[in-house]
Amino acid sequence: MDGAGGVTVASDAVRVVVNGRPRTLERMPERSLLQALRTELDLMGTKYGCGEGQCGACTVLMDGKAVHACQVSVKEVGGHDIVTVEGLARGDELNPAQQAFAELGAFQCGFCTPGMVVGTTALLQRTPSPSEAEVREALEGHLCRCCGYTKVLRAVQRASEISREKARRSA
Amino acid sequence: MTLERPPRPWDRTPPTERGYFEVLGDGILCHVLPRDRTTGGVGGGWSPPSGGAWVHVGADGRIRAFTGKAEVGQGTRTALSLVVAEELRVPVTRVELTMADTDLSPWDMGTFGSRSMPDAVPPLQAAAAGAREELASLAATRLSVSAGQVRFEDGVALSPEGGHRVTYGELVRGLRKTVVASTYGRTTPATDWKTAGHPAVDPAAVDVVTGRRVYASDVRRPGMWYGVMLLPPNHGAELASVDTSALEGEEGVRLLHDGPFVAVAAPTPWDARGALRKVRATWRSTPQPGEPEIEAYLRAHPSHGDHWDMEKLTEGDPARALAEAAVSVKATYRTAYIAHTPLEPRAAVAEWEGDRVTIWLGSQTPFRGRDHVAGGLGIPAERVRVIVPFTGAGFGGKHGGDVALAAARLSKAAGRPVRVAFTREEEFQHGYLRPMSIVDVAAGATKDGLLTAWTFHNVNGGAAGIRSPYRIPNLQADNELSDSPLPQGPYRALAANANNFARESTVDELASLVGQDPVAFREKNLADERLRTVLRTAAERGNWTSWKPNPGRGHGIAVGFEKGGRVATLAEVTLGPDRRPHVDRLLTVFEAGAIVHPDNLQSQVEGATVMALGGALFEEIHFDGGVITNRRLSEYRVPRFSDLPRVEVVLLDRKDLPPGGAGETPMIAVAPAVASAIHEASGVRFRSLPLLRDGKVPVAARTAAT
Ligand code: FES
Ligand code: FES
Q1: What is the domain partition of chain B in residue ranges?
Q2: ipTM of model
Q3: Chain A 40-99, residues with CB within 8 Å of chain B CB atoms
Q4: CA dihedral B72, B75, B78, B81 (to 10 degrees)
């Protein structure tokens, strides 16, 4: 249903690129990106935890920066590039954050993990070797109700190591 | 992989009529029949019955095990798979464990009370060991050796010198044989474990980090609609009148109005909510106590309901002993109502097929959920299947089945699958809470620091943790339950949080009255050897004796035993210049028998320790007129990274003891340890949780208590 190929697009249709794929969202400009992802695009990796920007479970990348999908409307993401947790891996190759969380088992119920992994990805893009204080600050908006924060801290450090190793290998 | 439905749920069908192989294919099936369904004692000794287990080794080489327990984030899926893998001598990735599917799983009372390991490990071990013995006798014939000579390795049976080998799949080809493991013996002792008890990566980790894992709130069925219920604006409200005329003739909306049950379903969640807003309802409310009256209210309203959660212990003559004690203390401790706040709110999806309904429900009690739905619909339980997908945690908060029943009713009315999920605000307002506890304590000791007298009475909170680990010759310890105006229910560790806070704070105070070190005082009075070891370990690892008194800093220690586990927590606190305390360090030492899955246990204990910090320091439900007034995450504070102390966990592995549960007990010593540390840092003794009502410690008055 993307607008290409002569298909008429409703006037309130919003075009957005999600995980590298152009998508059109119709009749829901006022809805949140979170609702659009979960009900229209069937991307369930982005979770609902609060709907008010307090828990980070809905974190996605918008043009490479972490945003709360529950806090931006469909209208506002028009023309932007969105990456959800489903779009982080390249085929079977996990990104460094995903690899680190999986390797260390840095989750319990895992409901916060997609958001944590996306948040970590954004952090490492900005700050490839964050200090513990920087990690805590960057992830302050991410709740883990299973309270697995200690392992998350370790996983972020491990993710940073993995991405540096990768960079070295490809250099 | 959802297996096909058997004609009737297996737990409600006699074992010989289950038709296991129609669903699972050729192979052998070993099952353990339920232990008797009695409910044991009360209070601390209470233990729910177990429904057994079954294990299928298929001709296709697959190994399937079944348990009624649910995975709600506590990590038992991997831990339970490990014990099956151990007995069948295969890597853990070979085991496919079906959990909490009421058509296929053994009946189970629920996933709570730290019972998953003690309930599910023995029958799964026995069923898997029984299957292995059957494989041994099949292999013996095939390899022309005696059953005792058969070796197993990685899913293959071998002759003694390894020259001949045959896979499990080949051994059971063409068979449809059921064996009953009648004993709980012949399982592998923990000291011989090669798979269980060793580090294991969660085989499903990739699904978690890629967002592929399907949680209850992620279940989508073809043609599914979204449902919402009309819910009362406050507790104590009843529907007086309802006008749904605005929805008459509305396209694409299905309204269901059946007595007090009013709900709508629509193609999108926002259409459903929009439609519900057009329903006009009026409510009849009875006046509800507010926060200032709540304690008096609970004391004055004993409950006459279901009284399984009661304890009454008496010994000697506590009144006289108290009067004669060299030192004594008397105080009332309070813990607030708090909310579980699992990150995933309640969610259910229902789908009908003929006269049978399947419900995917985030739940800790799938079988009770099944009964709740069947009862609500007036149909036999056989026609209801509840499947618990992965659940974004529970902490005791996901026992109910209301969203399941609503989804089932709406789905039937709409003729299509319907999903009902709570918003965060609904989760706060319409879920249930951890009960408020009021604990009246009086205790006395000799001048040498021997406990002699103890009276302890919990109002409303519950019985857990009332039993004392100390030797006290004169004692009266009991509880009463109240009719709470706010809905309340189970919570991780239940009243053990409140009761240990009260007990350990009291012990601390007595130790200081006789001028003794809190660790030495406890060691002297503890009756439980395992707990003494745990306490000593904490004192050693925490360098208890080398602590240097330091203005504005404090350290504290507390212990507890519950649900078969033993715990000691050591806390270190710094009081900031603004009198805001920061917990710098929490050290938890924990022992619960043999360790099955060390990494997961570590996560459980770390998580419990930090979660408990929320209830200790700042979590508190506020309410007025039956309305929860802080029902958002911006208003209800839970631990975040900025609250995170240095957390250290020490696990003691007792391979000579059966594996116990670990979900709850690691929480119970945190609050008293932190309170004791704050006392040392500030001179203020807190007797209420949360400790910091406004985030700060008041300036100490001579007899300050808050
Ligand atoms: S759901 Fe968006 S921050 Fe919680
Ligand atoms: S692992 Fe459960 S919320 Fe983080």
Answers
A1: 10-210, 217-285+346-421, 301-337+433-702
A2: 0.94
A3: 42-52, 54-55, 57, 84-86, 88-89, 94, 97-99
A4: -60
